[in-house]
Amino acid sequence: MKLFHISDLHIGKILHEVNLLEEQKIVLAQVLALVDLHMPDGSLIAGDIYDKAVPSAEAVKVFDTFLSELADRGLSVFLISGNHDSSERIHFASRILQKENIFIKGIFDGKLEPVEAYSETDMMMGVRFLQQYAIREKKPLVICVGLGTASGSRTGALPFADLLNTLARQVNTVVVTCTGNEANNRTHTSGLAVSDTEPSEIEITVGADERGFVMEIWAESLDILSVAITSPSGERISRIPARIDTGGVYNFLLERSQVAVNYRVVESASGYEVIFMRFINPAQGIWKIHVYSLTNIVGRYNAWLPLKQFLSGDTYFLNSNPSTTLTEPGAAERVISVGAYNHITDASYVASGRGYTATGLVKPDFVAPGVDVYGVRAGGGYTTRTGTSVAAAHAAGAAALLLTWGVTDGNLPYMGTNEVKSVLIRGAKRENNTVYPNNIYGYGKMDVIEAFYKLRTG
Hints:
Elements: E1 3-6, E2 14-15, E3 18-19, H1 21-38, E4 42-46, H2 57-72, E5 76-80, H3 87-91, H4 94-98, E6 102-105, H5 120-137, E7 141-145, H6 159-168, E8 173-178, E9 188-193, E10 200-206, E11 212-219, E12 225-230, E13 236-240, E14 246-252, E15 257-264, E16 274-280, E17 285-293, E18 299-304, E19 316-317, E20 336-342, E21 347-348, E22 366-369, E23 373-376, E24 382-385, H7 388-408, H8 417-427, H9 448-457
Helix pairs in contact: 1-2, 5-6, 8-9
């Protein structure tokens, strides 16, 4: 998650009898330009919005315009008053604005509402705690990651995935991840761009209730890609030149929509190009993204929309592809990536994130029960759960059993992710009429008993 933090705007300030409002308009326009370039998820505005408790009408108009521009870009805005502001005036209409993702706290009522929100760094710190705890207690460790993100190249190059890969190399530590539940949500497409004159085409159906969304286009090679955009009414933005870390916002007058485009010609983790696109108040209908190749290198690419739960309308790729729909960090090479299947019917789970990775690595490694699984509910009682996070928990339990047998009981004192992965793959159930590995089942369906039998016999 990326946040912009600004404070002490003091809109309407008069310094030595000079009204700074025009200069402040310029600064706020620069902030909006940086928002368009870096495309954060939200903005924090921490106090002293105005220079005095009763600001001028002109100052209120300037801030109203700025706040509206932020909201139009699909950002969540979090705002508090400062000592120069009137808390009551800032707090006005806060409950209504909350429906537009503008969260205002002009008055502190002494109550703190708990909100569960986790960033990538939070998860990295959690993993570090587990690692240090295991070392202190001299115990083997199984880390189960039941979360995933639709952001990234699906090569395991995100910082959290890289950390998990590092941990998976350590002895007596096993890392298990899920592959997400995006296979049937039509949030992935791929194509081949081979020309700077005849583009490949991505078509996106945007629903009536969609307020905004982001899309990432990742090159699969060292090719350089660029894009043009056509709106549902046929209004076209010509090909936007691809330059290092450049971007801009493009207006579609008939639809009153905007699209922010940001090129990262060399993404720091993967080395490949990524094109970030943010659709702001997109009109309903079919949007077309024209993808051009600027080199002689094969221009294969992948494009992903956000996880389905983060899309507010019926928005999807028309020419979608269910392959490579696994989420990060499930694409990390050394971790055990687990998909789900229906253990009741023995059929596949249609939503289970599929491989292979964008680099062709076999994922998932295998599948485990993940449909209507009966188990203990947080807070007491029992319930059923569905999803690849449930399947990952099954695999983590199997890994714990193997570590207990091997490390704790002394049968195999030094085991790690690779050893556990190999044992579980060898024991996996494989159908006679199915080719393995494949991008749905990986190397088969997890079978813990058979894995132990394989240890005994071979």
